[in-house]
Specification:
8 helices; mainly alpha
Length: 186
């Protein structure tokens, strides 16, 4: 089934833009056109999917498998930097994908954690576009739209100018926690 009217009405998304679309508004728009199990899939689809969460071979399942592989690649990179065994942190159910190792390697060539995350999200965006290619006006395109929208929304709240303020607030919280724990021990 084609979702021509629905998909045509959705604002264009870019990684650095702001389409003004929220997940709630997106799902509200979809309610008229998407029914039953497909609507439930759209509701459940997020940036932290689990292997086996969706029916094998579907767009959401393919993305979930790729995302888990990417997270495993990131775990291996972090473990290598910390000289630790990554085994306890790997998702054993995740399949290996060669492009996830490349994306993690590219990200870990960057020292700035915010820019590293941007590289990973760019890889996610590109994978979503790859998976949706050839699926115009389809349910797969709606799934891709939701994932892209979630990535876009993640970046709207991140402002470089607030980095120092956020670090100070986090540091103060840690200091208060340590002071509280010290008082309890005495």
């Amino acid at each position: 089934m084609g979702y021509y009217a629905l998909i045509s009405s959705l604002p264009m998304l870019t990684l650095d833009g702001n389409a003004g679309m929220t997940p709630e508004r997106f799902l509200s728009s979809c309610q008229t056109y998407v029914k039953g199990d497909k609507y439930k899939i759209l509701e459940e689809l997020g940036l932290d999917p689990q292997p086996g969460q969706f029916k094998t071979g579907t767009f959401p399942a393919k993305y979930a498998e790729w995302e888990c592989s990417l997270r495993n690649a990131v775990v291996r990179k972090r473990a290598g930097r910390l000289d630790r065994n990554p085994g306890a942190y790997l998702n054993a159910e995740a399949a290996e994908e060669c492009d996830t190792d490349r994306a993690a390697a590219a990200a870990f060539n960057i020292e700035n954690p915010l820019e590293r995350e941007r590289i990973l999200d760019q890889a996610r965006w590109m994978k979503i576009e790859e998976l949706e290619s050839g699926s115009l006006f389809s349910f797969e395109q709606l799934c891709a739209y939701k994932l892209k929208m979630l990535i876009q929304l993640k970046w709207l709240g991140r402002v470089q100018e607030r980095a120092t303020e956020n670090l100070d607030r986090s540091t103060d919280a840690v200091i208060r926690s340590i002071e509280s724990k010290t008082k309890q021990e005495n």
